[in-house]
Specification:
Elements: H1 11-14, H2 17-29, E1 31-33, H3 34-41, H4 45-58, E2 61-66, E3 76-80, E4 86-92, E5 98-103, E6 108-113, H5 121-138, E7 146-153, E8 156-158, E9 163-167, E10 172-175, H6 177-185, E11 189-193, H7 194-205, E12 214-218, E13 224-229, E14 232-233, H8 264-268, H9 270-281, H10 287-296, H11 299-320, E15 327-330, H12 338-356, E16 363-366, H13 373-387
Parallel strand pairs: 4-7, 7-11, 12-15, 15-16
Antiparallel strand pairs: 1-3, 2-3, 4-5, 5-6, 8-9, 9-10, 12-13, 13-14
Helix pairs in contact: 3-4, 5-6, 7-13, 10-11, 11-12
This protein binds zinc ion.
Length: 396
């Protein structure tokens, strides 16, 4: 496997299991002494000494000042050098493609909206390449300090090859994004479906940080789910795990664009909400105005929220309970309706558990991120690969 000329000298090092485990622990805990690392990783003190010496030599880990003594010698704390490492993020969505550079904490240092000449793969990806190069330059970031590029795409993706199999949203079929971006930018590239990327954003940077079993339900720009089970993103042999948007949930429900009735997508996709509102009131409403009207208690918009709540509740229960999840995050604007949506879904979920006697529990929440969740998700994708040993990182 070629590393596409990836210059970062830590590459081989982090791909060894022990070094990844130490980095992952430092990332999770912020800073640790060598003896804490020994305790948390279960490795021997000699192994920890050797690995941390390597990581310090590589410049990825720094030694901070001494901590408080608990009797013996004062321990020296270690932490990841955040100033050394960055992630590049790409969101590919019709009319709303963006790139960003983030640090490992998920802080966005720069964000750019793309304006490609067309949505054709060459045009859009050329625009991505040009604006990423411009951002590296304007932030004076050396390429070797970027651990990878994450790409979140609306569509079905083959993550191991970094390929979009099909994106209805972009009108793409079989586009090898990772090899196109990787060859040009000489960096590892990771490509994922947007709902999966968002699930990783919650896992690494948001609500699902402290659990290994969670689901992110994407809404607003479509419908889908990203599922993390036992700390790992589920993808499936055909890369369609989490494609819950067009599985009918409501018998004789609203007619969906796919021809069926009662799909989750037709209830949560804002384009469909807008069409329903127009049909009922004769008025086309923008998202911000729709949210405002719900706040004000306007009848038609409140009715739409009330109709959507049971459908999202069904989705949470149908997927969350059999998967025995701890956290379910409702993304998009629906997750911001605390009482009418989030708490409604939680009550429905709890009632099913009580009635059926299934010994499980999940907390349902709105997303941790108001905006930019796709970009954070793409960053989460890179972080996930970087800290997960032996993952296949990009197209060969
Ligand atoms: Zn449908």
């Amino acid at each position: 496997m070629s590393w596409l000329g990836r210059p970062i000298s830590t590459t081989r090092l982090v791909r060894t299991y022990n070094a990844s485990t130490v980095l992952r622990t430092l990332y999770e805990y912020g800073r640790c002494s060598r003896s804490q690392l020994t305790e948390l990783t279960g490795m021997s003190p000699a192994t920890i000494t050797r690995i941390t010496a390597d990581l310090i030599k590589q410049g990825v880990v720094l030694e901070g000042g001494p901590g408080k003594s608990t009797g013996g010698r004062r321990p020296v704390y270690l932490h990841i050098d955040q100033s050394k490492l960055y992630v590049a993020s790409v969101k590919l969505l019709r009319d709303d493609s963006q790139i960003a550079i983030l640090d490992l904490e998920g802080r966005i240092l720069t964000l750019e909206y793309l304006n490609p000449p067309s949505l054709a793969p060459d045009d859009l990806l050329d625009t991505v390449i040009t604006s990423l190069k411009r951002s590296f330059e304007s932030l004076s970031i050396k390429q070797e300090h970027i651990i990878g590029i994450g790409v979140a795409v609306s569509g079905i993706c083959q993550p191991e090859e970094g390929r979009v199999i099909r994106s209805v949203n972009l009108g793409w079929v079989d586009v090898p994004i990772a090899s196109i971006l990787g060859e040009s930018l000489r960096l590892p590239v990771f490509v994922e479906n947007d709902a999966n990327a968002c699930a990783l954003a919650e896992l690494w940077l948001g609500n699902a940080r402290d659990t290994k079993n969670s689901m992110y339900i994407k809404t607003e720009s479509g419908a889908g789910a990203g599922i993390i089970s036992n700390g790992t993103l589920l993808t499936g042999p055909h890369f369609v795990t989490g494609e819950i948007g067009h599985i009918p949930l409501v018998p004789d429900g609203e007619r969906c664009r796919c021809g069926q009735r009662g799909c989750l997508e037709t209830y949560v996709y804002f384009g469909d909400v807008q069409a329903r509102y127009l049909l009922r009131t004769g008025e086309k409403v923008a998202l911000s105005a729709f949210l405002q009207r719900v706040q004000e208690g306007e009848e038609a918009s409140v009715k739409i929220v009330q109709e959507t709540a049971p459908v999202l509740a069904l989705a949470c229960a149908h997927w969350g309970i059999p998967l025995d999840l701890d956290i379910i995050t409702i993304g998009g604007f629906w997750g911001r309706f605390k009482e009418d949506i989030v708490e409604y879904c939680q009550r429905y979920y709890n009632t099913i558990l009580e009635q059926s006697g299934i010994p499980s529990h999940a907390t349902i929440l709105g997303s941790s991120f108001d905006d930019n969740v796709d970009l954070l998700g793409a960053a989460g994708l890179v972080i996930d690969h970087w800290f997960t040993p032996f993952s296949v990182p990009f197209a060969r």
